[in-house]
Amino acid sequence: MASVQGDDDLVFHKICSLFEPLNQKGVRLTRETDFIADLEVDSVSVLDVVMDIEDNYDISIPVNTISEIRTIGDLVDAIHSIKKRQA
Amino acid sequence: MSLFEKFEKTAALYNQLSDAGMNPFTVVMETVLGPTRAVIRGKETVLAGTHNYLGQTFEPKAIAAAKEALDKEGTGTTGSRFANGTFSGHKRLEADLAAFLGMKHCVVFSTGFVANLGAIAGLIDPAEDVILIDADCHACIYDGCQLSGAETIRFRHNDPESLDKRLGRLDPKYKGKLVCIEGMYSMYGDTAPVKEFAEVAHRHGAYLLVDEAHSFGVYGAKGRGVSEADGVMDSIDFYTGTFSKALAAIGGFVASNHKELEYLRFSSRPYKFTASPSPATVASAGAALKVIKETPALKEKLWANTRRLHAALTQFGLRLAAPPAPVISVLIADRETAFAAWNFLLEHGVYVNMAIPPGTPGKDSLLRLAVSSAHTAEDLDRLVAAYGALAQAFPAARVAA
Predict the structure, then answer these.
(1) Which CATH number fits domain A2-86: 1.10.1200.10, 3.20.14.10, 2.60.40.10, 3.30.1490.20?
(2) CA-to-CA distance for B119 and A86, rounded, in angstroms?
(3) pLDDT tens-digit map of B61-98
(4) Please, what are the domains in chain B?
(5) Shortest Cα–Cα distance, A70 to chain B (Å)
(6) Do residue A42 and residue B357 have CB atoms under 8 angstroms apart?
(7) Catalytic residue numbers of B?
(8) Which pLDDT score is estimated for B1?
(9) pTM over 0.90
């Protein structure tokens, strides 16, 4: 499981780096950080960052999936499950 | 009161703007004086945010046709297209639109919004199809996708390569693939590379839907939109449009060469379960379509007005979103400044649309000017003067030196 954990960390850090420019209030980013409640970014900004993530990992994350994602951890999990399916 | 809690943040802004008498989203046209003039806040104002591109709201032939239909067929159809709401006028308009576009089939809906909703949700089976949409597509396309229940994937705005990548990595399980783009996008006034999109979509076995709501009657030699201007009318699988811009009525349509388009008449809930456009509406839209066919001068005048305004605003150093198009948007980074600038224009006798994120493509707020062929020389002078004053008063609206 160690390798999965390591990969998980990489995805987590990648997502954090992509959301950092939108982190106006300097909130500490964790798996529990809620995009709308904590980062106060609007739904379209989340969609736009997800587009960068898609191209970074060469995956497609449907809008339907994104609308169910609330936290950074949710997004990390969604990326892993899509990568696994597309592998 | 947990039902209403979610509105609090937006309500605070909305009420604050209203209390200050500065809310762009509560404007009332107190008296309509003509296609480009109305009384707003007690003052005669030039309308430059009404998307009345060909100025047909007071077209005498359309008004006469509407009056005749009203007298002969009454005020409303009191039913949906699927039940008792299809009159001969609806069928005639479908035939006229199809002929105008050079397509075999056309289905008329009650609004442009409903046309996209009804086309997408009616064509798509969430169990086996997938939809790919341009990131900047209109809310009704997003809502059509949501209503369909199918997996929906966004690609980068006006970027055929981004679409290519996403189509390329699709799970082969999908049977039907639908790509949705627009002709001219109404926020920035930028246009899609329809030809490239058609090539990419078809290479992957996908169908292409182009929403020409803002470009119908405005682009292309015959006014068939950006698809015609790009020379690819024959490659469009589904062409959607509205009656509420160049045709100056209300309603919408989907046209196609696929005979299966007719299946929407039983598969599309937004077709089946809402009342059809009234006889007067259908008659005026039909008459306005005829005017577009017979009067190419309207489109030429629109473009002449567009070029003059775009050149003037560029000269003032205003930060514009796109090359000349009948929508000319000034970008302002700060929302509060944008509200003040919008009110400044209204005080100077000019009404434009105001748009703020997340309803806009980027982080900027927009002052959205919609040009009309009906703008007179005097209207244009007033617009130019107001924007000149704006450029002086609001350095934030100008391109950084």
Answers:
(1) 1.10.1200.10
(2) 30
(3) 999 999 999 999 999 999 999 999 999 999 999 999 99
(4) 2-57+295-396 (3.90.1150.10), 74-294 (3.40.640.10)
(5) 16
(6) yes
(7) 186, 214, 245
(8) 64
(9) yes
